[in-house]
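tool_call predict_complex ligand=uridine-5'-diphosphate-xylopyranose
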Amino acid sequence: MRISVIGCGYLGAVHAACMAKLGHEVVGIDVDEGKIRSLSAAHAPFFEPGLDELLRDVQETGRLSFTTDMSAAAGCAVHFICVGTPQKKGENGADLRYVDAAVEALLPHTRPGDIVVGKSTVPVGTAARLAGILVQSEPSAHLVWNPEFLREGHAIKDTLSPDRLVYGVADGSEDHVAVSVLDEVYANALSAGTPRLITDQPTAELVKTAANSFLATKISFINAMAELCEASGADVTRLADAIGMDDRIGRKFLNAGIGFGGGCLPKDIRAFMARAGELGADQALTFLREVDSINMRRRTRVVELTRELCGGSLLGQNITVLGAAFKPESDDVRDSPALSIAAQLQLQGAVVTVTDPKALENASRRFPELQYEPDLETAMAGADTLLLLTEWQQYKELDPFEVSSGVTGLRILDGRNVLDAAKWRAAGWQYRGLGRP
Ligand code: UDX
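tool_result ok
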């Protein structure tokens, strides 16, 4: 099929490459010339495992191209809207200007029968509004909401083999003409047994925000338990293991630590609350305020614990922060708890060095006042205290005996509860986890 993908960020670039991998003829369109230049040279403008290789493979087949020229969408039967919906400045709601601009720019290039597919995370009601704009310009075109559930760091696998496919069509019916077109787009995943749900548009929009809210709630739940564990001397990691053995609860997303960040969960729960307010249903989501504040409290808690670990004052303490990305296998620092903690410590008088295998360029743009060191050993040299804040594999594998020789103080705070506390203590380290004795 001929497909256009509008917006080539984390979502769109991966989607375009994966659609081409599946055999479709794809053009990726973005207003950012730098991004298009980079993607055209088979180089992703961000780090995502396997993406450069995939871009190279599919570009060699001639099935994938990138451009800033929206007219390249003409002649494509399916147009995916993959632009960002960030949080509005100074408000909780989602900023829809990029979605609106993408649809406006696409309109002159749509043809009768085209299918416009929204993948961006939007407030419920957006699809119906955009569908109205679309049919005014092209009465026989259709708008479908097809939320994307990919996780950064696993984006290619999540796109090629998703857990489920959700199509939100105007009448919510299996017989809608867009259903068979999308079935053709996703033929590969469907034949591999991926479940497919047909819903109306508002349900499809809500599926995404509800899923992210649930995940955020699960993380904040276990972080609230971590607070209780800290107050009572219990161990939240064992608690999570034990409650997670109940099938109905499950162990995934029950890792207590410094909390969630990134470009999705924090802004999605806030936009969801804002939208609920507009709909007169704000009471339904007041619990998400608590989810948000438990999450933000983790960051202050880590600053306090670090102060304790440093003997009561942060002034002049050499602190090395391991990890800047909001999670491992990503260079994304949007709302990264690790970086926000590093910046707080620096503000309170510590001398902070941040290291990360992939995210330092983005981090230094976000917080230029922090000191960055790409080499792990150099970053740790002379540190009074180490903070493990993003659980990259190389940090999880650190050997306490080897690390001891380079640092000044044997103190470590494990912000992700991924180190073997007994082993570090046996090597003479003062070890602090979160929600662990
Ligand atoms: C999330 C959703 O998982 C994905 O389905 C959606 O499409 C986009 O938003 P992503 O932002 O890539 O994906 O990251 P995710 O793996 O969900 O992690 C989010 C944050 O939660 C990270 O900061 C991570 O460190 C944190 N987290 C995750 C925890 O603190 N504890 C956990 O147990 C799990």
